User: Fold these one by one.
Assistant:
Number 1:
Amino acid sequence: MAKKKIKELDGFVKDTNTKAIINTNSTVFEARRVQKKILQEKDIQIEQMQKDIDELKKLVKGLSKK
């Protein structure tokens, strides 16, 4: 696999066979991976909070019927 450095983009090379652009900066890559994991955890937390709110609404409605 032959690679050619991209002048305009530090940390990236282009595979001359497939024309794919490859990130060679592992620090930035790892930081993005951590960022995505944090966002995914926040999404899960928000979903759980929405479920909890729905459950509380049902409980309040049930109490108001009594």
Number 2:
Amino acid sequence: MDEYLQKLVRELGEAINNAINDSNDVNDALERLREAGHEALLVLEATIAFKDKPAELEEKPIPFKELSVEERLADISHEDRQFLKSLNIKFDKDD
């Protein structure tokens, strides 16, 4: 399991733990047990299972489109050119 997935699973565990700890129903039930003279200890175990995505739902990489420098520069708006020039970024041959 990669590091990011471990982090997500840990966050899920913490969220479940917080939900149980913050539950008025759970706390009230534990309190009733204590009032009846019983020391109650709540231990829960959770199993998290992962299911692979179906192949048709997997994200496919966007194909890279070969463009010349001239084609890329043609897509830059006048405002973008002005902004780049204000940052001293030169991209035109005549600059």
